[in-house]
Amino acid sequence: MSNKVYEILTEQIIEALEEGHIPWEKPWNGMSFAPKNMVSDKTYRGFNAMLTSFLSMRHGYKTNLWLSYKQVKDMGGEVKKGEKSCPIMYYKMLEKKDASGEVEDTFPLLRYYRVFNLDQTEGIEIPKSEEVELIDHTPKEVIDLKVMEYLVDGPKLEEQLGDRAYYDGLKDLVMLPELGQFMSIEEYYGTLFHELAHSTGHKTRLKRFGDGPVFFGNTEYAKEELVAELSACFSLSHFGLTDRVIKNSKAYIRGWLKALKSNPKWIVEASSKAQKATEFVLGIDNNKGD
Questions:
Q1: Is pLDDT of 137 > 80?
Q2: Which member of 25, 86, 109, 251 has the greatest number of CB atoms within 10 A?
């Protein structure tokens, strides 16, 4: 069942990429709030946040509020004829018991259910507090303070004139060109958060790299690059910065399509790791949400 769920979820991303869209490029649709379930008030995270927000942007929905078919009916509404639902993933914890019936282990099973945007329904009013607002951009000083808090026990950060941005896992060092070399503040912080996301994989933090660094050209490198790119987009959205454009998008799309078609688990696993990396960098203790 889990493999089928991965395929269903990944189909949504493949469809977007084949149309030339990058679902995580501007994840919050220019809104100042993240997508969530209208009834439970749970904020979507990781893959669920990325997909629902992309669909909101793609179809021009007025809100990022989502409901299951049953929730729509319970609220006295109807789903408009011909509307397509969006899959929401979650993990159901299963128990493995020994011969005596004692639980000896638990493991997650990936499942999904389907939701509709509030705009896809009729008979339910949009809450006034949820109407579209202009983004309240976070002052640069606030973002810098958050970054500095991470760097206290994090990697070293250096900026120098040059054309390379990278994370050196052996030295635990993030290297960036100087701020003035970037075309926009979104490009600077997008690059910074990309490299900081890489640094969370260090053995002293989230331990994504195992016993050694990830080298350019291997499979793990491609996966790690997607984790870092997703995390950068999640971080920018957290601060209301959504105007960063992914460079060389056509080349990236070809590579991502090839990887996703060969391994349906890839995007789901990457978005989960990216969410954890983002929360680690920003110091977010987020035990709520889907």
A1: no
A2: 86
DSSP 105: E
CA–CA separation, 265 and 141 (whole Å) = 38
End-to-end CA distance of the chain: 19
- Residue 119 to residue 274: CA distance in whole angstroms: 29
% of the chain residues with pLDDT over 70? 86
Residues 171, 131: Cα–Cα separation, whole Å: 47
How high is the pLDDT of residue 228?
Answer: 93
Residues 179, 140 contacting (CB under 8 angstroms): no
The residues that bridge with 226 in the sheet, in sequence order, are none
- Count how many residues are written for the chain: 290
How many whole angstroms separate alpha carbon 277 and alpha carbon 205? 9
Residue at 31: amino acid letter = M
Sequence-separated (6 or more) residues with CB below 8 Å from residue 125: none
Q: Could you tell me if 178 and 159 are in contact, meaning their C-beta atoms sit under 8 angstroms apart?
A: yes
Which tokens sit at 218? Answer: 């291997």
User: Could you report the per-residue pLDDT of 221-251, keeping only the tens digit for each?
Assistant: 778 888 999 999 889 888 878 666 676 677 7
CA dist 48 and 18 (Å) reads 20
Tell me which amino acid residue 214 is.
V
